[in-house]
């Protein structure tokens, strides 16, 4: 039996920049509606296994690493938190993306994670998905501010997408 070894080269940037953006008031005029073929549903009841799967499915290609070492128990606790809510996006029967909203102080909602599944990132669905995340954030009674952070390791259009929806840069960190 012959084995072929492959050499994979991964380019890790020497540095990255993290951008913090906020939307202090709703801006429906900048949030495109979902295309008719796309459906966004809240995950109820919460399902930690699904959230973990979504996190890796969407985030592995963008070097999301903050939850890589989380245990099953940590995932269960995280998803059981009533200040965290999750939505999935589908086209037909196909999962195409998701987002999580987190509001620990009952007034400031963070778009914790938002992204499209591999193969769906260049289908012009990112703007509508973000628009829906913003609508859900502002529709959560008591929300007075929505914020998000992204970085130069995310999809090349991520920062521009947030800004196109009216989100304003308020802080930036070199990492």
TrEMBL record:
Keywords: Acyltransferase, Transferase
Entry-linked InterPro entries: Acyl_CoA_acyltransferase, GNAT_dom
Residue ranges of domain N-acetyltransferase in the record: 38-175
One Pfam family cited in the UniProt record for this chain: Acetyltransf_1
Keyword set includes Transferase: yes
Main enzyme class: transferase
Record bears the keyword Kinase: no
Enzyme Commission identifier(s): 2.3.1.-
GO terms for MF: acyltransferase activity, transferring groups other than amino-acyl groups
Name of the protein in its database record: GNAT family N-acetyltransferase
Source species of the chain: Larsenimonas rhizosphaerae
């Amino acid at each position: 039996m012959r084995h072929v070894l492959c050499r994979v080269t991964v380019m890790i940037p020497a540095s990255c920049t993290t951008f913090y953006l906020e939307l202090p008031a709703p801006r429906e005029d900048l949030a495109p509606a979902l295309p008719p073929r796309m459906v966004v549903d809240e995950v109820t009841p919460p399902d930690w296994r699904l959230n973990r799967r979504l996190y890796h499915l969407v985030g592995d290609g963008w070097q999301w690493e903050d939850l890589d070492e989380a245990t099953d128990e940590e995932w269960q606790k995280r998803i059981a938190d009533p200040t965290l809510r999750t939505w999935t996006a589908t086209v037909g029967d196909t999962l195409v993306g998701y987002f999580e909203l987190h509001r620990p102080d009952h007034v400031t909602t963070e778009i914790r994670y938002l992204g499209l599944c591999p193969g769906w990132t260049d289908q012009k669905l990112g703007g509508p998905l973000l628009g829906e995340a913003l609508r859900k954030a502002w529709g959560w009674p008591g929300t007075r501010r929505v914020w998000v952070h992204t970085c130069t390791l995310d999809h090349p259009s991520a920062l521009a997408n947030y800004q196109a929806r009216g989100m304003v840069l308020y802080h930036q960190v070199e990492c």
